[in-house]
Automatic annotation (TrEMBL), chain A:
It holds the Pfam family Peptidase_M75. The gene is irpA_1. Residues 73-370 form the Imelysin-like domain. It comes from Acaryochloris thomasi RCC1774. This is Iron-regulated protein A. It is found in: Cell envelope.
Amino acid sequence: MLSKKTINPQALEVSVVQRRTPKTLSLMGAVLAVLLLGTGCETTTTTSESGGSSSSAGGNVQLISDFPEQVVIPTYKLLVEKSNTLKTKVDAFTADANVETLKAAQVAWTEAREPWEQSEAFAFGPAESLGYDGDLDDWPVNETDLKGVLKGAAPISAETVEGLQTTQKGFHTIELLLFGSDNNKTAADFSDREKQLVQQLATAFDQTANDLVTSWSEGIDGNPAYKTVLATAGSEDNSAYPTSQSALEEIVGGIIGCLDEVGNEKIGEPLKAKTTDDLESRFSHTSATDFKNNLIGAQNAYLGKSKAGTSGASLSAWLAEKDADLDAQIQKELQAAIDAVAAIPAPIEPKISEEAALAQMQSAQDAVLTAFSTFEEQVLPLVESS
Amino acid sequence: MSKLTKFLVLAGGVAISTFLASTFFVPSSVPPAMAGGDTTVISRSSRAYEHPAPNLSEKSNEEHFEGDLAFDAVFVTAPARVNPGLGPQFNNASCTGCHLRNGRGLPEKGQLLVRVSNPENASNLPDKDDYHAERVAPSENTPPVPGIGTQIQDQAIYGHPPEARVEISWKAEKGQYQDGTGYELRSPQATITLPNEQPLPSEVLTSLRIPPPVFGLGLLEAVPEKNILALADPKDSNNDGISGRPNQVWDMEQKKITLGRFGLKANQPNLLQQSAAAYFNDMGVTNPLFLEADGSSDIDAQTLKAAAVYAQTLAVPARTLIKDQKVKRGEQLFTKANCASCHISELRTGQHEYAELENQTIHPYTDMLLHDMGAGLADNRPDFEATGSEWRTSPLWGIGVTQTVLPYSSYLHDGRARTLEEAILWHGGEAQSAQQTFMAMAEEDRDALVRFLHSL
């Protein structure tokens, strides 16, 4: 999911003049527009003889080694801590189902959600390619098949979970089981099979969270630790990141991808549909909390820190050296986006068709997309030419 | 402020006059970095294959965004509020589930798939009256296998058995460069078990595949047929040992045989049909080209088209390190070893439904033709005109970011090559002499050639 990106001529060492639609061309004045349209020429490119792409790591070395150590791994470690608590609380609930134990399991789910949503500002690397993202957070839930499993007679075991589709496990299936379809489940509503399934799902979830952090910190299945892959960007034998700029672009791209998804999809789609259908955490009525944590994740990634209290060399400091005003602007825009999202009445789910709530969703979307555009249009070009 | 206004403010009058001048004096050659012409984007991160072409009009950009949502949509079992229609059998539940970040997949469940067909003279063909949508795209030499069709769907919705279970083991083989340096290659061995626990009958032809990347495809669709046919040399009349052949396949909409362009054996004529087949075969999602028995479908024409448009209008990542001396030397070695005879570096696009894709000089490193790649790579499963040892030349643009987009992913049709070096070593048949030239190179030359590939 990516939105439009412009080319930066400097990085390519060609100057590119982009074609614009007739509507925007009118800004350039009628004469120019006529000339342009008249030629039928869409893009003009000229070459320059000088220079070449740099593969030296330059001043980025500290940043690309601190980012995994101080931002990514501590956030995933927090996820592991919370997923372990979730497993413990779900175990306690299934052993003795009552109002308190259910509440504790629900709270543990919400708390595990926090570091995960914050980690979506760096969703690259093994999270995607080794399938952890799908196993932990696929959406929507395959409710029809879930009902089938629950109504069936086959014993529910660890193997059952292994055979399930990703849309029948992870956060949202556990959410549906713990909270009900409209945050309306009571301890008495649980069948024995629901208890067995949620227990197995929480156990599998915890294992996946552990594998995810291992894939970054130590490497898994014989693959190198991803922190090393990122930190060695620019070395000739690095098949993923041949230049240090590419690792920096990865970090910036992670933030951009997160802002894009929150703004255009997570907020954008429900805003269009005015129903709860596309609200990601609608079962637990915590979709607005997801928006907020995504943005805090983006802010942390930018500032080079994590919820766990760790910090290191930051993109913010790197940018401030080049353009202090731009850094200040981004800090302001990220905070404004967080504030705008915080102003959405929570929970949003029961209010999604109300005018006032939709207006707040709209302001939040605008604020998120403002930060998104700044990263896309102003930060990326600086990275490419660094 | 719009991007354009900003550009004008920043650029000022001088740039505008340069702009006007360059509009009238178009340089004759475009730098090789602009792999996809005006659709090129500069990106060397894991998002490299996910950018919309930067030259899209506002309208095309909106269509691309709609397509992005369709491509991302995860299907579930009907009935459902969101995305019903999965299965009953399937390989994955979304386009992006296989084409992770639009890149090359891994040889793992959910991404690796097995195409199957009966030998042409098989006696156990399925009953012709038994409707199966897979049969609406007829290819006489890929008769469906009873109970499976032409692709094994190894996952299923609740209450339905998957068509088979596929387990992969790896066979290793050792070799040596001419300078004595050793290497080890691996190839996948599939054990396929039917729901009744019996093995797949041995006469069934199988072909293992991983998903190829999906960017730049609109440009390849826009290359005029005559340009591709002009590259063909079926009888090798120029005696260079290379005899590219076009595939001729069934166009379901036009109901006629036409040039095959897409798929690892070029068995699909266009991206709409390619997308429709993928919806149906990979996800079990029926659509206007692959209907349910009663004529209905899980998705409508608009959604199908959106997904095709998404692939059509994705940007191509620019090359990097173009001034790097080792990369330059690698490029010369690539040409000298005759790799460029099939991996043609430059093509020109013609007409297309999307004006943004038209009349572009592109650098895909493919001739879009079938070549005999030798026994080592053969799947021995013919598909239309493609024989069991022929494959369509894979485009190499953007190949340098393969493992950035998807860490630990691998190369060639079934993901057997863990590195680009291994991929070269697997080349046989018409590419044998190029492979042998590589085998005979000194280590630093081999490294340079591979570094060139990483710059793409």
